[in-house]
Amino acid sequence: MQSLTIPRPDDWHLHLRDGAMLQTTVPATAAVFHRAVVMPNLVPPVTTVAAAMEYRERILAEIPAGMSFNPLMALYLTADTTPAEIAEAAANEYVIGFKLYPSGATTNSAAGVKSVEALAPVLAAMQEHQVPLLVHGEVTDSDIDIFDRERVFIERHLIPITERFPQLKLVLEHITTADAVKFVENANSNVAATMTPQHLLMNRNDLLVGGIRPHNYCLPILKRRSHQQVLQQAALSGNPKFFLGTDSAPHVQANKETACGCAGCYSAPAAIELYAEFFSQHNALDKLANFASVFGADFYQLPRNTETIELVQQPWTVAETVDTATGPMVPYWAGADLQWKLRS
Ligand SMILES: NC(=O)N[C@@H](CC(=O)O)C(=O)O
Ligand SMILES: [Zn+2]
Ligand SMILES: [Zn+2]
């Protein structure tokens, strides 16, 4: 049997949710990843260091015995975030940065930012304290087509931010377009991007052809194939600015399969195997280790993991559903095959 050993990976962007859902999401991610950047889009959002530390304790309580897992918390940036909160976050090793959600852009973003320009004093504090800015990069103007929202956000907001704050560490999360790849490639070394399995493995045909597939619906929405191909080339290039962030985003089946379904793919149960599938499809499994386990740690100036995981070439099928305390969930890639499996 073919096998591949890589350093233990980290997930630099995901959603664990809260309450009983943590009983499902925390073990699934901790089984593979050593660290994970936990998104703060709860209701109410996690806006302070104190709230993040309480949330972190609730996560730690669900780690199965014998597993080591280090959740790194992202705080939710709002119009009320103060430079003092930034300084407190900078001093806390379990806070990774602040997350910018344009108001209304995605799940639980109502409390997000309405004016990016008004953030200037806070961004200046983040640059000064070397606190990273994590970005959901989409405008929300009703006159901007959903497929153009990432590109327009880059033009209107990200290019000016990087020009004004060149020392600010900035991660454009879950990139979906050739425009995002170009922006990150052209920016200085303080700018990086995370990439999800679905945006590497799929394009909008997988969402819309032959019937609408709600479990492939996430934000930013899957784009046309030419964008997918540019993302793939960026991941395959070995450029350290592009690294793993699953954006695993659980929603129960009833909230996905409905007239107005939620955005988000729950990829955690097959996360590393989905990326292995992508790299293996391109005969580039040798590129998985850096993408999954090295580039993110280096960008965040955190130690590289010394433990390893082993993947074996052993076809398996992702479960049709995952039971949770709040109802069944359909994982991303449900019922479909993968060629590589984590040896447990
Ligand atoms: N990606 C998604 O489609 N959904 C995420 C939010 C986000 O990351 O934008 C969620 O929290 O459900
Ligand atoms: Zn997002
Ligand atoms: Zn997300």
From TrEMBL:
Residues the entry annotates as binding substrate: H15, L16, R17, N41, H136, L219, H251, A263
Keyword Ligase: no
Keywords: Hydrolase, Metal-binding, Pyrimidine biosynthesis, Zinc
Pathway named in the protein's UniProt entry: Pyrimidine metabolism; UMP biosynthesis via de novo pathway; (S)-dihydroorotate from bicarbonate: step 3/3
Entry's cofactor comment: Binds 2 Zn(2+) ions per subunit.
GO biological process: 'de novo' pyrimidine nucleobase biosynthetic process; 'de novo' UMP biosynthetic process
Assigned GO CC terms: cytosol
Domain Amidohydrolase-related: 11-310
Cofactor: Zn(2+)
Binding site for Zn(2+) 1: H13, H15, K99, D247
Modified residues (N6-carboxylysine): K99
Active-site residues (renumbered): D247
Residues given in the record as Zn(2+) 2 binding sites: K99, H136, H174
EC number assigned by the record: 3.5.2.3
Annotated InterPro entries: Amidohydro-rel (IPR006680), DHOdimr (IPR004721), Dihydroorotase_CS (IPR002195), Metal_Hydrolase (IPR032466)
Entry keyword annotation includes Protein transport: no
PROSITE patterns xrefs: DIHYDROOROTASE_1, DIHYDROOROTASE_2
Any one Gene Ontology molecular-function term assigned to this protein's record: zinc ion binding
Function: Catalyzes the reversible cyclization of carbamoyl aspartate to dihydroorotate.
Subunit architecture: Homodimer.
Family the entry assigns: Belongs to the metallo-dependent hydrolases superfamily. DHOase family. Class II DHOase subfamily.
This protein's name: Dihydroorotase
Biological source species: Idiomarina rhizosphaerae
Gene name as annotated: pyrC
